[in-house]
Amino acid sequence: MQWKGRRQSTNVSDQRGSGGGFGGGGMRIPVRAGGGGGIGLLIIMAILWLGFGINPLALLGMDQGGGGGQSQVARGPGPQGTADETDDFVATVLADTEDVWNRRFSDAGETYPEPTLVMFSGSVSSACGQAGAATGPFYCPADQKVYIDLSFFRQLAGQLNSPGDFAQAYVIAHEVGHHVQNVTGILPRTTQMRRQMSQADANAVSVLVELQADCYAGIWAHDTYQAGFLEPGDIDEALNAASQIGDDTLQRRSQGTVVPDSFTHGTSAQRQQWFKRGYESGDMAACDTFEGRL
């Protein structure tokens, strides 16, 4: 992905080294494993409970959340307040999502409220509660912010076998996709739906939410390609990441068996399918995973 020397978003908040805290009435998230051993607690929490999408607080019954070769930017975060390549990369990708969604909302006669991306290390306090690095990247609809501990990129390239800067960009674009769902009213409606359902049915709705966010990430990739910023192999990196974080792949890797009723993000094939649909169509209408039921 051609990202160096381009516009960077100013909607980035660096909270690394702040220690998190429990401000804003946040609640501590209990740390529980979501499966067996094998892949480790960090990846189980980051993917099976959250991955690239819905805040795990929703899965814990709080229902406030939304929603997932070596890379040239797969480095650890620099000291607080110090810009390094990873910081620049994140800010550039966020700027790209702003350009894409500002233009699309404007074409529809609407205004796009740009989200803030919070970089943290260790733990962070959000309007959805307290979260740690094990939570993985997440979007909080209550404060309209994306949260990410940049050390996740190392896990993405390592434990999750998803190297490449565009795989990392896909993570950010997916979380921003949840923001688009929030401001268009999809997240509030699906959150209410899940509260009235059995766990299995609620999980099925969560899958549809996540797949739509993948499709929206594909739309971002479509527009980024049109702008001339993609390089050969970029889409393959995103599709590989989508495959590696499918519920079936992760469950098979972590516990040796697959439990479809427990899926919250979709299978590897589904995640690839919906990212490709957004990328190939460039049409938000093609991302209706709910088939008009909302």
TrEMBL record:
Stretch list, region Disordered: 1-26, 66-85
Pfam families referenced in this protein's UniProt entry, alphabetically: Zn_peptidase
Transmembrane domains' residue ranges: 33-52
Keyword annotations from UniProtKB, A to Z: Membrane, Transmembrane, Transmembrane helix
Localization per Swiss-Prot or TrEMBL: Membrane
Membrane topology label: Single-pass membrane protein
InterPro entries on file: Uncharacterised_pept_Zn_put
Biased segments, Gly residues type: 17-26
Source species, domain of life: Bacteria
Coiled coil: none
UniProt-recorded name of the protein: Neutral zinc metallopeptidase
Organism this protein belongs to: Aureimonas altamirensis DSM 21988
